[in-house]
Write a structure and sequence with these properties.
This protein is of the alpha/beta class. The protein has a six-stranded mixed β-sheet with strand order 6-7-8-3-9-10. The longest helix has 54 residues. The N terminus and C terminus are likely disordered.
Amino acid sequence: MRHRGRADDPDASFDWRQLQRLWGVTRPYRTRLWLGVAASGVAALLGVAFPVIVGDLFNTAFGVRVEGGLDSLLQGVGADAGAAGGAVAGAAGEATPGALNRIGLVLAAVFLVQAFFNYVRVYQLGYVGEAVVADLRKRLFEHVLGLSLHFFERRKTGEITSRLTSDVSTVQAAVSQAVAQFVNQGVSLFAGVTVLFVISPQLTLVMLAILPAVIVATAVFGRRLRRLSTAFQDEVAAANANAEEALVGIRIVQSFTAESYEAARYARAIDTSFVSAVRRARVRAFFIPTVILAMFSGIGVVLWYGGQQALAGTLAPGTLITFLLLTVIVAGSIGTFTGLYSQIQEAIGASKRIFELLSTSSDLPEPASPRPWRDVRGEVRFEAVRFRYGDRGDEWVLDGIDLHVSPGEVVALVGPSGAGKTTLVTLIPRFFDPQQGRILMDGIDLRELATDGLRRHVGIVPQESLLFSGTIRDNVRYAVPAASHEAVVAAATAANADGFIREFPEGYDTLVGERGVTLSGGQRQRIAIARALLKDPRVLILDEATSSLDSESEALVQIALERLMRGRTTFVIAHRLSTVISADRIVVLERGKVVQTGDHRALLATGGLYRDLFETQFRSAQQPA
């Protein structure tokens, strides 16, 4: 049974299936692609015509008469069936300036036409390459954004960005250059060998005798090169991932004076990739010179043998020059094919990673026919919900949660660290699905709703609000890009943010820097609240929204949060129990189970875990600093 290359088989001689997938991305640009391919073929044919014209030019210049001349493509050469290269037809003729001028004009015309087709080739295939890269990057980024949080917990950001940059660029080189080179060199090889056979079959066979060795070397070295290229791309992605983490967390890095540690970690990753790159360079260093040596050895033999025929008078000098130039073209084509094979192997390795990412499906499948959801009220119900993170052991993070929250009710979730509070609220916008039980919104199972429609009605204000590089206005209207300036100002005013925004020279056009680094924690949090207000969600999640703020900022943010919570179903997570006392209901979690529920007074009177937590915090607050 014949072996077929597979995407998961690094030793496969050639992965045709992966190459077909790569070819498929060019479908929208096939017209331009075929136009570029056709132009490449014509340019290659004109390139083969050049040695023939030059040979005829030399024969004319030296007064050697060849029957048929240029028009018959040297068909008069080799008319004597017994001669190795064909005898020169007749005695030397007289060279005339007119004949030379005509051949010179033909040569100039060939150059001009070839230049035109080369322009068409380079432009059209360059356009296709750039378009494919743009499409791949957009498609890949859009696909990655739609994957679940579980995917991002297992993949590093730097690895994903490496796919968007270096791997896609490798594919671009294959699409914009490899196709053109394949056609161009293929036509040159076929047409060149055909003309060579017409001129001298014996010399052609001598030249082609080295082909089997070149083909075997290509197969052996190409397989090795593909494995090394795959390893190199993986190691570069790992290095990028380390760098991305360090740059994103630069404040932590510098606060712990860990610059040298991060630099050393990145250097180790780069050194690892460097070792693979050197191995790849070594393989190429053996491979390419071997092919070149073989080809030029053949050229040397042809030169010696053809020179013997020219001295014997069986081959015209100009025809020998034609043969030698064509031999160089054919040798160059074969050499290019070897490099082309390596390039395609690298592109296959890169495309494998791209398509592997594109083939990754979300573990939160969209319903085939989403349930319609109108008149959203914000009622939330948990029914026997059990959830665990599959890659963190078998222990249930949430174990049998039954909870009903009425529209507009404010529910506080309290409990010791690791009780499952944050996990519970992340199930509401369907960042994860429970393994058992179900969660309903207004009586509809979340898995029956369109995910984007569900999340449009859920707002989140986390402990560390992330702002995007851009202006304050852009960040406030992130959820509603078409919001008017008046709506942005109204939301910022309600969030107690308008005052400090207007103190900036640029006002709402102030740039916040990457992750909002130019603003204080309280300012970032109030902009995040303004963003949530503008979104106007029916269900609101406040996850430790004030825990990292100073007293003054916390007071301002708390006022903004109270405005934000009005009329919305709200889930509040807070370690500081003073912030949840006014909640309509307090749900106490311990080890993934609901152990108590009620308002503040009732829970204090009942005793148990809530009172223990409250009294512990109260005693800590009373102790002198």
